[in-house]
Design a protein that fits this description.
Structural class: mainly alpha
Number of helices: 4
Low-confidence stretches: none
Number of domains: 1
CATH topology: Rhopdopsin 7-helix transmembrane proteins
Largest sheet: 2 strands, antiparallel
Number of strands: 2
CATH class: Mainly Alpha
Membrane topology: Multi-pass membrane protein
CATH architecture: Up-down Bundle
Distance between the termini: 66 Å
CATH superfamily: Rhodopsin 7-helix transmembrane proteins
Keywords: G-protein coupled receptor, Membrane, Receptor, Transducer, Transmembrane, Transmembrane helix
Helix content: over 70%
GO molecular function: G protein-coupled receptor activity
Main location: membrane
Pfam family, one: 7tm_1
Strand order of the largest sheet: 1-2
Strand content: under 5%
C-alpha cells in the first residue's frame, strides 16, 4: 500500500509524469532534428544547429511536458494511487468529462503524436540512406 499522504502521492505522480514526458519528447525532438539534418541537408546548412538552438529546443521540451504534468494540479485530470496502491500516477479511471478529455489529450499529444513523429523521422532517414546507397552503387 502507499505509505505516505496524498501530497507526497501527488508529488511522486507529478515527477513521474513530468520526467516521462520529458524523456519521450526529447527523443521526438532528437529524431526530428536528425531527420532534418540527414534528409534535408540544404535545410541543415541554413539552420546551423548551435548550443543556442539546443537550449531553445530543451526549453520547449520542458514547457510541453510541464503543461501536461501540471494539468492535474489545475483540476484537469488527477493524480492518485495506482489500482494496487503501491505507487501513485495519473488516475486513469476517469470520473468526469474533464478527466476523460485529459486522458485523451495525453494519449494523443504525449504518446501517439510523438511515436508517429519518431516513426516517420527514422523511416525517412532509412529511406534517404537507402536511396543514397543505390546512387553510390550506380556511380
Amino acid at each position: 500500500r502507499w505509505l505516505f499522504n496524498q501530497a507526497v502521492c501527488t508529488l511522486y505522480a507529478f515527477c513521474g509524469v513530468l520526467f516521462g514526458l520529458c524523456s519521450l519528447t526529447s527523443l521526438t525532438v532528437l529524431s526530428t532534428v536528425c531527420c532534418l539534418k540527414v534528409c534535408y541537408p540544404a535545410y541543415g546548412r541554413c539552420w546551423d544547429f548551435s548550443p543556442c538552438h539546443a537550449g531553445v529546443l530543451l526549453l520547449c521540451v520542458w514547457a510541453y511536458a510541464l503543461m501536461f504534468a501540471t494539468a492535474p494540479l489545475a483540476e484537469w485530470g488527477s493524480y492518485g494511487p495506482e489500482p494496487y496502491g503501491t505507487a501513485c500516477c495519473i488516475t486513469w479511471k476517469a470520473s468526469s468529462r474533464e478527466a476523460t478529455l485529459y486522458i485523451l489529450a495525453l494519449f494523443i499529444f504525449c504518446y501517439l503524436l510523438p511515436c508517429l513523429l519518431i516513426l516517420v523521422s527514422y523511416s525517412l532517414i532509412l529511406w534517404t540512406v537507402r536511396v543514397s546507397r543505390r546512387a553510390v552503387r550506380q556511380h
